[in-house]
Design a protein that fits this description.
Elements lengths: L1 E3 L5 H11 L11 H9 L10 E11 L2 E11 L2 E2 L5 E2 L5 E8 L6 H14 L6 E2 L15 E2 L3 H9 L3 E12 L11 E4 L5 E6 L2 E10 L5 E9 L8 H15 L4 E7 L3 H9 L3 E10 L2
C-alpha cells in the first residue's frame, strides 16, 4: 500500500532513514528537526527554496515502512554557467529507497510516472545532485549500495547521467601544524584561504553538517603555478589540523568519476574511497 506522508508518519520515516540507510556514507546521523526541515522545507546554499511542489509517499506492508519516494518540481533550473533560472523547472525523484527484499518497489515508480504526467514533465530526473538534502551535505546522488533501486529505475527508462566518487577522512591522527602556511576564514566561516608570506596558495569551501562533528569539503583549489610542488598536500594537512582543533571528527568530499587527478590527490592525503554515487534522467 502507498500512502502520503503526514505528521504521524514523519517520525517512523525518520527512524527508517536512521536504521535502514545508515550504511550509506553521506547519510550522517542527525536529529529529527534538522532532518525534517531538510526533507520538507529545504533551501540551497544561498537560502533559495529548492521546490515549488513536493510529494512524499510511503510504501507500507501492514504498519511497517518498506520504502518511500519523494517527488518534486523544482523552484528553478541551473544554466550551464551555474546561474539559476525560474522560468523553467525540473521534475525529479529526489529520494527513493525500498528494502532489497521488497517486492513492491515498482508501486513507487508507478506513482512517480503519474506525478510527472500530471505536471506535463516528459523527461524527469532522479537523484539530482544539487537538490539533495542539506542535512546530508546535499549529496543527492544514489549510492552504489542501492543497486536494487538502480535496477528498477533502469526498468522504468532512467539512464545514468553523472557519476561521482565519495571520499571520507577520519581526523583521528595527531596532525602537525605547518606554521609556514596561514589559514584564514572569510566572514561566513566556511570559505578558507591558504597563504604563505602574504601570497595566496589556494583556498577551499566547507560545509559543516548540522548537529554533527562532520564537515564536507565542497571544493579545494591550489594556485596553478604551485601545483606539483607539494603545496596541495600541505594545504590539505593544514586543513586537517585546523578542523581537528575545532572539534571536527571527519572530513568528507566527492569528485567526478572522470577526475582521476582529484581522486589521486584524495588518496594521497589519506581519504578512503567510500564508493560511487549516480544521478539519472529520462532522455
Amino acid at each position: 500500500m502507498v500512502v502520503a506522508l503526514n505528521t504521524t508518519t514523519e517520525q517512523p520515516l525518520y527512524a527508517f532513514f536512521m536504521n535502514k540507510l545508515g550504511h550509506i556514507p553521506y547519510y550522517f546521523p542527525t536529529d529529527f528537526n534538522t532532518w525534517r526541515e531538510s526533507l520538507l522545507r529545504d533551501t540551497d546554499y544561498d537560502g533559495e527554496p529548492l521546490f515549488k511542489k513536493m510529494k512524499t509517499l510511503l510504501l507500507l506492508e501492514g504498519d511497517d515502512i518498506t520504502g518511500f519516494i519523494q517527488l518534486a518540481v523544482t523552484h528553478f533550473v541551473l544554466a550551464p554557467d551555474g546561474t539559476k533560472s525560474k522560468e523553467f523547472s525540473y521534475g525529479l525523484i529526489r529520494n527513493l529507497y525500498f528494502l532489497p527484499n521488497c517486492q513492491n518497489g515498482h508501486m513507487l515508480l508507478d506513482c512517480a510516472a503519474d506525478y510527472f504526467k500530471h505536471y506535463g514533465i516528459a523527461k524527469p530526473y532522479a537523484f539530482f545532485h544539487y537538490f539533495g538534502m542539506s542535512c546530508y551535505a546535499r549529496q543527492g546522488k544514489l549510492h552504489e549500495d542501492a543497486c536494487h533501486v538502480e535496477k528498477l529505475l533502469e526498468h522504468y527508462g532512467y539512464v545514468k547521467e553523472h557519476e561521482n566518487v565519495y571520499f571520507s577522512r577520519l581526523l583521528t591522527d595527531d596532525f602537525d601544524d605547518d606554521r609556514e602556511i596561514a589559514f584564514e576564514y572569510s566572514s561566513d566561516d566556511e570559505s578558507i584561504s591558504f597563504r604563505k608570506e602574504g601570497g595566496v596558495l589556494g583556498g577551499c569551501k566547507l560545509y559543516f553538517i548540522p548537529s554533527s562533528t562532520i564537515c564536507f569539503l565542497r571544493w579545494i583549489w591550489i594556485h596553478p603555478e604551485l601545483t606539483q610542488k607539494g603545496y596541495g598536500s600541505r594545504c590539505m594537512k593544514k586543513l586537517f589540523f585546523v578542523l581537528k582543533q575545532k572539534g571536527t571528527s571527519r572530513l568528507d568530499t566527492d569528485t567526478a568519476d572522470s577526475n582521476f587527478a582529484a581522486q589521486g590527490y584524495y588518496h594521497k592525503t589519506g581519504f578512503a574511497d567510500m564508493g560511487s554515487m549516480r544521478s539519472y534522467c529520462v532522455y
